[in-house]
Amino acid sequence: MKPNIHDVAKIAGVSPTTVSRVLNNRGYISEKTKERVYKAMEEINYFPNDLARSLFRKRTNLIGLIIPNSSNPFFGELAFHIESICTLKGYKLLLCNSLNRKDKEEKYLEMLIRNQVDGVIAVTFNRGILDYHKQNLPIVAIDHYLSNHIPVVGSDNYAGGKKATELLLGKGCKHIVHINGPLELETPANLRRKAYEDVMKEHGRKPVTYEVPFHQNYQEYISRLFDEQPNADGIFASDDLIAAAVLNQAKKRGIDIPNRLKVIGYDGTETVQSLLPDLTTIQQPIELISKKAIEILLKAVDGDFNDLPRETYLPVQVLEGKTT
Amino acid sequence: MKPNIHDVAKIAGVSPTTVSRVLNNRGYISEKTKERVYKAMEEINYFPNDLARSLFRKRTNLIGLIIPNSSNPFFGELAFHIESICTLKGYKLLLCNSLNRKDKEEKYLEMLIRNQVDGVIAVTFNRGILDYHKQNLPIVAIDHYLSNHIPVVGSDNYAGGKKATELLLGKGCKHIVHINGPLELETPANLRRKAYEDVMKEHGRKPVTYEVPFHQNYQEYISRLFDEQPNADGIFASDDLIAAAVLNQAKKRGIDIPNRLKVIGYDGTETVQSLLPDLTTIQQPIELISKKAIEILLKAVDGDFNDLPRETYLPVQVLEGKTT
DNA sequence: CTGAAAGCGCTTACAG
DNA sequence: CTGAAAGCGCTTACAG
């Protein structure tokens, strides 16, 4: 069986209380005792049981992360940064892939509550569910406005949409088409769309937005778009995977990029940048978002509910490649 | 404060023992009592504390996953599948990004032990460390042989290397160059290399293997390769990211693919396939690997240490695109 | 069918 | 500087 604190105490010739004190560096302990305890711990390969410790302290140092899917480059990188920063701060991460399904999100949330996580970071399109279950559980939402009581951290989607559209206009595009996800989902991408449409109107151009179903095979939709918009000379895709599909469709049709058609994407993940270095895109500061989200969450964990910033939007950056 | 089992008991007018029995569906409880208990739990929004339960049962249903980096498409997808399957089987996943650093792996492993995980799935290049700390902790390695006592699950790397090389030869390539990671790392990619070299020799061709440092900026190395190997008419890259770098370098130099040069990668992740659908590659069965790894791990968790398969190699598949 | 008691492995007032 | 006792929130023999 695994050794426990009593085993250590017996070997060191002290009480379990003393061992605990050594473990926690708490109160006065003579150097000699300390050493004996350390030696005993090493001798029997003792590691404290964090379950027991957490049970007593009512603090687990566990954070739950709910994302749609760690396969997606954006979420994969988000998970990486969040986990790394958590570890740096002494927290551990329970990973949950919700596939954007409400039923899964609910189950995960209940699981996290049962496991006494100190807080939750969530990327979810389903409003309300977090609020409902919450009951004092600190939550921070990433990039999605969830409810009045939940802080959001994201990037400046309106600015991103504006930059993308203006870049295309500045390069002389007249007929710019925007591709976005379904409008019903209250995603942050809606702000990108809004910015696109505002800027287009400002410039006396008619906005044309195509909606593609979520995580569908984009090719089919993109192909239809090409058929229906033969005059398009610029495409602003609301994420890089859609932009990649556009690039592929253009290649298939022998459309010269960027001469006949300019394409800009959104997200600018490391993975996509390394696979498609030519793609012009709007880069989100994933690491910064992660940092901010954790910072706010840990404030809430420490009971500091008062001055939590309700909404934090970090700046985006244009990465200009050869597709524009 | 959070309600506990005593609060539920008081409201339902029964003992904590009975509440626990209802919770665990254990022993005989009258329907009436059951109902009263359920109602009480709902009334005060009670969720059992899994910490306490785990402490008693000496079973957490927690699995640790150590991967280099969830940003990488291969590991991101691996994490997704492993987490999904774990959830399906009632397990939860603690995510650890080791960046392939031995010191981090060691710290993570200790953290996992302290948190009483039931088992660990690890992708690591650093042999030995797991073995050292292990002390009865069930571990399964993915794609990397770690030690005699740790089962490995992976794909058939030799077959993959063979298929890749034969495909290029079959298409008429005479001068095939292979790009791989550093040989010192005992990665499974070494088997891909071995297969490449064996097949080349069999066909009376001279194998030429380039080693690129891990996670470096590949472009520079690839560029040198192009300079040094002007006659190369086929390149077999040991992963898709390297293959993508080759594609980009070829584009930069105006080299016609596949006519002047044919390129095949390795991994075949969803992400890379969706971004570079034209890339020919050897696809690893990530979901199947995940399933097998968990299956074996859970066997070990259940104390079934006897007939654990030492090595499991799942079949790979050629995905033929337009780069060959 | 139900309850009181002991214990999982810790930590922390309290006392000395 | 150190220890005995109580308790974190559960579960499970044991007894009735």
UniProtKB/TrEMBL annotation, chains A, B:
Domain HTH cro/C1-type: 7-47
Pfam families hit by this protein: LacI, Peripla_BP_3
Gene3D superfamilies reported for this sequence: 3.40.50.2300, lambda repressor-like DNA-binding domains
Keyword check for Coiled coil: no
Positions of transmembrane segments: none
Highest taxon listed in the record's lineage: Bacteria
SUPFAM superfamilies registered for this protein in UniProt: lambda repressor-like DNA-binding domains, Periplasmic binding protein-like I
HTH lacI-type domain boundaries: 3-57
InterPro entries: Cro/C1-type_HTH, HTH_LacI, LacI/GalR-like_sensor, Lambda_DNA-bd_dom_sf, Peripla_BP_I
Keyword set, alphabetical order: DNA-binding, Repressor, Transcription, Transcription regulation
Protein name (record): LacI family transcriptional regulator
